[in-house]
Amino acid sequence: xxxxxxxxxxxxxxxxxxxxxxxxxxxxxxxxxxxxxxxxxxxxxxxxxxxxxxxxxxxxxxxxxxxxxxxxxxxxxxxxxxxxxxxxxxxxxxxxxxxxxxxxxxxxxxxxxxxxxxxxxxxxxxxxxxxxxxxxxxxxxxxxxxxxxxxxxxxxxxxxxxxxxxxxxxxxxxxxxxxxxxxxxxxxxxxxxxxxxxxxxxxxxxxxxxxxxxxxxxxxxxxxxxxxxxxxxxxxxxxxxxxxxxxxxxxxxxxxxxxxxxxxxxxxxxxxxxxxxxxxxxxxxxxxxxxxxxxxxxxxxxxxxxxxxxxxxxxxxxxxxxxxxxxxxxxxxxxxxxxxxxxxxxxxxxxxxxxxxxxxxxxxxxxxxxxxxxxxxxxxxxxxxxxxxxxxxxxxxxxx
Length: 400
Fold this sequence. Notes:
Blueprint lengths: L1 E5 L12 H12 L3 E7 L10 H10 L6 E5 L5 H7 L7 H13 L4 H18 L3 E6 L2 H14 L3 E5 L3 H4 L5 H5 L8 E3 L2 H7 L7 E3 L6 H6 L8 E6 L5 H17 L7 E6 L3 H11 L4 E5 L4 H10 L2 E5 L8 H7 L3 E5 L4 H9 L4 E3 L3 H13 L14 H14 L3
Parallel strand pairs: 1-2, 1-4, 2-3, 4-5, 5-6, 6-7, 8-9, 8-11, 9-10, 11-12, 12-13
Helix pairs in contact: 1-17, 2-5, 5-6, 11-12, 11-16
């Protein structure tokens, strides 16, 4: 199979937005398929590879690994100011409305600069199918452009909630622009359900994966602390504050045979966490870390007695699979969806879906008495390699 995967985020971007397409591209390459991963340049750099050099790389590529091609966003200065937050209120709304109405998205600069590369791919690579993820409508616009040039089908993927990221005047009219997609893959059952009002095509759930072998290899740090990790975005300040206040109350009231409690936050919202901790003056120790690479992230999860996350209501958190694979107690606040709770039960995890501070207190007390779970062989089903088999069947079934 010759496939082009399209994502806005460059694969080297230190953010979860890059992960899904990068890892699936790698996994399918390892299964013998020829994969091109097409993205924007890293950090929207205006400097990109000349077209002739891309063509030479394409001719020489063995496809033992994905071929990555990046186009730089060029021109359209108002769009750059828009994304930098430098347009005044009123003009900002006008620019967004105009570009969605006229160009079906606000990354028109990237889409326009992509055209020569798409023509090269269509002419020299001749893809059988295109898979493009919605992290912005221009990923789908580029997929449609390439589909016409190459005369092949495209499959849409959605990992963000459509109506959250598209301005309300366009949620239905813009959705109709993509009805030519052969199918729609969704990040979760929640995404499938939320996509139903907008997209009529057949839908398939394709969960993202994780590197289960790296998880099993990652050593656990020995510590005399009772460590609680909090990872990723925190979304609601009030939910975060409730969780931290509850951890503090539990630390004061719960004897742990002399063990100190330590909270480690890893993510990009240190300021929010620090502000609440400053106000709280907690009885537990704490450490704030930036975005972690995979090895350090897995090490943190396995070295903590509790892995906590703040749930964004109306969203699906793929990291729950990583937390479960670490085989430590997982606490979610506020309560999770039935979909996630079902997955947790199937993986025999110590998983607590909390609706209140009292629930968090009970979960922490239970966690302090629980033994760490052994790694279960069934967790290898969460690996990118296994998840890629599902995607492979879907894409191959839609090649014409």
